[in-house]
Specification:
Layout (H helix, E strand, L loop, with lengths): L7 H29 L8 H10 L1 H29 L4 H31 L11 H39 L2
Helix pairs in contact: 1-3, 2-5, 3-4, 4-5
Length: 171
Amino acid sequence: MTTDKIDNSQRTAAKVAGVAGLLAFGLVVFGNYVLLDPLIVPRNAADTARNILAHQTQFRVALTCFIAYGIGAIVLLTALYVILAPVNRGLALAGALFRLVFAMLWLIAPLNSLAALRLLGDASYLKVFEPDRLQALARVQLAGSFDDYYVGLPFFGLAAMVCAWLWLKSN
């Protein structure tokens, strides 16, 4: 079913979707490639740990960018639902749910990364471990953050496919 009438809520939602999409994308690119990527040394947990400890603020700002991206994804899914629901409410809801699963998995990733920072801290309970083991565990936590992303990626793909179909049907 297509609709010929575009109401004001859809116009507002389209503007919100545009701003949220651009802002979220910019934040995730900045957080990943400008802030986080320079801290990660491939196949070297010790150097990665040293970089993170030496640049904790940079690491935390990158994680803040990732959280903002997750929130932006939720704002975007809401706006897309408002825009596309008149075309097919069931498919629009399915697309929103797929995007919500992706956003929730994305929001778990920074929490795993914060656990890596905790492992590199100086808490007394960590003293029973050798520094190289803690560095390796921290690197495993960072790798786990990417696992969260990759589990969510098919849901992002499904959401994009459903939304593309609804855009096509909307004329």
